[in-house]
Please model this.
Amino acid sequence: MIAQTLKWIGGVDGFLELIDQRRLPAELVRLQCADIGQLYEAIKTLAVRGAPAIGVAAGYGLSLAMQQLKPSADTAEAIAHLEKSAEYLAQSRPTAVNLFWALERVKNHAQTFVSENQNATQTSLREAVLAEANGIYAEDVDMCRRIGENGQKFIKNGAGILTHCNAGALATAGQGTALSVMFEAQRKGKKFKVYADETRPLLQGARLTAWELKQAGIDVVLICDNMAGWLMKQGQIGAVITGADRIAANGDAANKIGTYSLSILAGNHSIPFYIAAPSSTFDLSIKSGGQIPIEQRDADEVRFFGDRKIAPDGVDIYNPAFDVTDAENITAIITEKGVIESPSTEKIAEHFK
Ligand code: MRU
Model:
């Protein structure tokens, strides 16, 4: 069973229902976002998280924003409101480019709709906005499946696969990116074991990936982040597969903090290191990973383990949510269009031509 992470309920006056990922694995509960403020909070506090899922949610956020319009507002006022709402949602998290990509896409669609339809009304514009958000959702489902199909060949029968954070169904509208590769390998009848890094400080690996893989009947072993190197040394890992939050034009890839260290460890042990991501995660406007903004999160995420304080008062804390893996450490990037081996600016440009 693959989790349905996001679901728009109803028509233009509808709302977004999300699996509240803050409460997994203890409880599988759904959160209703009926206005843009609730959606902003859901993204910021990681009720919905993972780059593609954030993008899909943001698209629907603009549909929620349109519900705030006065019935008398004309299309020019509606577009101005949409632009302001997109700016607001863009403040929720800085690293995953899917957020900005989806906001731009819905905004551009609405602007084009109004400029090309002289008879456009607020109602028809609201329908166009929702249709575009639905389009982003449907494409994400399709991209996830294709990523899995393109990447499953990298999972050899009997292999141990290491993953970090959560790049599964919970992080997308479909069956995930890195985990989609595993789901498709499972569909092919391959037997393999997945080692899931717990992923401190917010434990997406322990709480979400281990939960998802268990639900799917995939053999999963949970490890602390600092155990990966030792497993590699013992020959237990055949490949590392993770997702990404933003990939620069040269292939440098931002992902959950700890991914960079894994890429170095994998290189040292001659283990292939794969990134699985849809085209919506590429930011071809930036040349390299140094330009990717890295989210810094609250010190309490490190200071506490659950409700328990685990560090002395007054100690300085550093809590970046992401790091950047250099393209040269990446064996291949798996996208919905195919596989980019030894990624470089030229190969990525060719891939998306
Ligand atoms: O802070 P999060 O949980 O949103 O971070 C998520 C990740 O780093 C994922 O690996 C990435 O978004 C890829 S999801 C398909």
The first strand starts at residue 6 and ends at 9. The domain at 6-146 is CATH 1.20.120.420 (Four Helix Bundle (Hemerythrin (Met), subunit A)). DSSP finds eleven helices and 16 strands in the chain. The chain has a mean pLDDT of 98.
